[in-house]
Every structure is written in structure tokens, then in C-alpha cells.
Amino acid sequence: MSDTVKQQQTRPERVAIIGGGVIGCGWAARALAAGTRVSVYDVDPDATRARLSQAIDIAWPAMAQRGLAPDADRHAWSVTNDLDQAVADADLVQENVPERTELKQSVLADIDARVAPDVLIGSSTSGIKPTELAAHATKAPGRIVVAHPFNPVYLLPLVEIVGNSATSQATRTHAQALYRGLGMKPLVVRAEIEGHIADRLMEALWREALHLVNDGVATTEEIDAAVVYGAGLRWSLMGTFLTFHLAGGEQGMRHMLEQFGPALKLPWTKLEAPELTDELIDRVVAGCEHQAAGRSVAELEHRRDAFLTDLLNLVERYWPEAEGLPDRI
Amino acid sequence: MSDTVKQQQTRPERVAIIGGGVIGCGWAARALAAGTRVSVYDVDPDATRARLSQAIDIAWPAMAQRGLAPDADRHAWSVTNDLDQAVADADLVQENVPERTELKQSVLADIDARVAPDVLIGSSTSGIKPTELAAHATKAPGRIVVAHPFNPVYLLPLVEIVGNSATSQATRTHAQALYRGLGMKPLVVRAEIEGHIADRLMEALWREALHLVNDGVATTEEIDAAVVYGAGLRWSLMGTFLTFHLAGGEQGMRHMLEQFGPALKLPWTKLEAPELTDELIDRVVAGCEHQAAGRSVAELEHRRDAFLTDLLNLVERYWPEAEGLPDRI
User: Which of A51, A183, A219, B45 is a good FRET partner for B60, with 20 to 30 A between their CA atoms?
Assistant: First the structure.
């Protein structure tokens, strides 16, 4: 796929949000900031109206500081308990009902039956695979995709797009364009796996953290501090691969794998690591070199340091001690 | 331990750095910025001098932007291959030789024999337990502790302090004060476990990421993007526990565990999660409530959103697209 295609944006003009909880309200706020009209379906419209109104109050100042669309209207929303009405004229339907497979299958089949076959239907599911989600849809199941956001939806740009077994490449490209139109970074996941990509990574860290608490090694506060004051600072600029690429010195990832590869055999976590085969090494090294895009490790380090300096100056205004709370550690 | 004790700082006046690689040079730069004099021991002094000089050139502008000590002198360092000379008069010795247990044991025993019993000896080991490290020391093994920093050492504040079986509480407190004196956040780890705390968390994420690459699910770039544009943004402010506390709505962590606890049984990672017993739930919930320090979830959310807004405005100047590179995703 060319970069041009990847960059295409198509702002949805009208989004239907199915389920008005925290995630649904987050989607609604993001869409409003992008200048899109929002129609929310929920079984309890009164409570949802109150919740959404409050959510927009909270989200709007932050979104305004990020930049609103010129035609953004924070009042361009309505709530209904009539599904037909909610999805009428929508060019994107986003489902956010509770995380139960049968419920989602049924709701998605109901939506599929009601909207034109070219309307994209995204599900915010954290972990259910899209082919399972689309199982009861009969009209155009290929347009039912996972579109998994991250909390707070109105600020975090990541959305994971996972097509089902009937989803065409054109639909995936259309989905990318639509979510870009909402100001997001759509990551198209090529395989259907439990938890997609991001939640698997977060879960791995979370499970290890739970083991540490369970084994009495550390408190939740100590574990959080170990993230916040260390690796977490780097993870907003670089993921784990590019971070370790820089830990390898001028030789980058290949040297890093030589040096720290043996640690994969050590009981450093409760999780068994994969065998570090030549093929896996080559794949990881090639990936990092592609990401580096010709920049030397020294150049990447310089950029990282400039970022970290700005970031440290920023987070000191937000870390607990800035509030006069005792230092965490 | 009272907060007053925790906050104590004692700037070391002279630090001996044993081993002048990337980590050793990082320690040296940090110490110089704090106004401390630095003596580096390395078997190859000429190469080390060149490397350290370059490292200081790179680190100094970033450290200057963070704030130097009034008496900081970027030239207050020397390199020698004479261990006696390197450690003479040091009030902190920091060992950074290659990560081989026998080598570190031998070097640490050599240092222990040469310095007064009240001089703290910190090892930068990523994963070796301190009691093992101190095994060959005979003079005052209790003052040999793990003091594990994070790359780049001159910017990231976290240092994990792990005492060995002979380390007194007074020594731990003294170690905290010394590393605070170098502008760091010392996290005292209460148990000796492989990988301490932070590396276990990073390793868990890293191992899962390697599985994803190995299974052909995603490229390194896609996995990094899943961190950078999503969870990574939150992790510089809050760790995994406080983040999930906020994902639980007004009920916080307890509600979150009710809602997403069952996912621990799902194959979302290659890592098996611990059983979510009532005791573990209580421990996690109590930890988060302590961290919240009386602030409601809504207050914490407001603070998080203000931070994320500033951070997003910052990282956009550093993410690849700011350099005119194609979007990662």
C-alpha cells in the first residue's frame, strides 16, 4: 500500500454511537471535536444524556487545546433508544456495548440489517475477534471490523483496526481513512488474535505486575513508580523495539540481542520467551532498521534526549510531588 | 520510615565509576551535572576518555536544560586503569562491568577490599541478585547493593536499590540519600528477585512483543506504534495500576477488576496470570486508593487529561511524521 493511500482521510459526517458508557461518550466527544454530528443509541437515554453532557464538559477544554475542527459544534449530538433512528444516515457506526460476545453479536447483526452495505461498522471490543463478532450478521458482514480505541478516547490517537474473514482490503482502507478523519492513528492488525496487539502488550505487563503484588514483592505504588520514572518516559516516543535498538549502541538491535538475548532464558518474568532463532533475530533487526529510516543510533539518541528533556520538564508539573503529595518513592 | 527520612539527600562529593561503557559514561555525566567529581576506572583508559568526552558532549545540553548544580564542572573527571587510584576518596563507587556474575563478584570483592567500610558500593546490574553479587566480598559486604539505573542514565530518574542479605536498613537509607543527591528517584526493592521490578515489567512486554513478531502477527514498527500512540502516552504519568484505577470509572480499581478480571483467564498473552483471589483484589484496590491520596477518579482524570494534552502537543514535535518521515501506521 502506498503512503498516499495510507494517508487518506475521510471525515465521517455523521457517526452513530451504540452504547453510551465511558468509551461511547469518549467516541462522541472525539467525533464532535472533529466536526462530525453524533447520534447515540442507549437503552437509558436520560442517564446517557446526563453522562454525555458531563463527558463533553470534561473533554472539550482538552480537545480545544489540541485543536478543534473549524465547524466543530459541541452541541451537535442527540441520544435515542430507537436503534433505527440512531443509525439513520450514519456513515460510521461505532459499537460500545458491554464486552459479552453474544450481546455484541446480536447488536452488530441488528445494526448490519439496518444500514446500507457500504457503511462501516466498528466495534470497540478489547479482545473479541472480528469474525466471531460478525457471526450473526447476514447483509454485509465484511464491513464489521474491530476498531479498538484507548481510554481516554477523545485524546489517545491509537485505534486498532481488525477486519474479519470477509473483510476486503478496500474496507480496511476505508476504515483507516474514516478514523484518520476523526484525528486518529489507525493501526491495521493483520491477524485475528485475542486482545489484538496493544492489549496483549499491556496485559503482559499487567499480569507480571499482578504476580509481583501477589508474591508480596512490591506494592502497586512501587510498581507504578518503576514504570513512571523509568521506562514509561521513553514509551511515549518509542516502543520497546526502537528503545532497545538504542540500547545496543552504534550496532543497534543486533548488538542488543547478542548482549541481552541470553536474559530471555532467565526467569525474569513468569512469561516464557520465544526461542531467539536466527530468523527471529533477522526479523527484529530488519524491523528496527526500517524504523530508523537511515538515521544513525547517535541521531536517534540525540532526538530521544531532546524529547526526554522536554518531557521531564513537563511531567514534573504533574507528578505527585508537584501537588505537594509525598514522593511516591 | 517517615517522609522526612525518605526525602534526605546527601550529594556524593566524589564518585568512582568502575567500567566506562554506555552505562558508566551515563553515570559519570549525571554525577558531573550534580556537581560531583568523577573518577573512572577502565582497562582501556584511552578509549574510555574518548567515549566519556563524547558522552558528556551529548548529555550536557540536555542536562543543562534540566538544571545543573551551581558548582557543576563538566571537566571534573579523570580516567585510570589503576583501581586503587580510582576509588581513593570516593564516597560512592558505582560498578558497571559486563553482566557476568563471576566478573562482577570478583570486581566487587576487589573494590570492597580497597574502600572504607562506610563507602556505598552500587552495582548497575540489570538482573543479578545482590546477595550473589556480594558473595566474594569479605570486608563489609552489606554495603554492596544493586543500584540499577535506566538508559539514558543522565536523564531517567529511576534507580532500583536492592540490598543483600547483610545490608542494614541504615545502609538502604544512606543509599537512597546518595542517589537522591544525584537527582534520582531511588526505588528500594524489598525482595531479591531476578530482574528486580522494572526489568521484569519491561521484559514481560518485550517477551510478548517478540512472540508477536515470531508468530508473524505484526512487525516491530506496528508493535512500537501500538505502544507509542496508546498506552505509552499514559505510562509517563501513571503506571499500570493507577491507569486501570481510572479505567474503572468512579468506582476505580474494584470495578475495573470486576469488569476486566475475567480477561485474565483468556489467552490474551502467552503469560499466565495469577489467580484473582479476594486477597489479591483487596491488596490491589488498597494500593490504588493509597496512591490516589484522597483524590477522586474525576480529579485524577482531569489531571491526566491536562497532562496528556500537553504531552500530545509535545510528542507531535518528535514523532516520525514531524521529521517528514511517513507515518508509522
Answer: B45
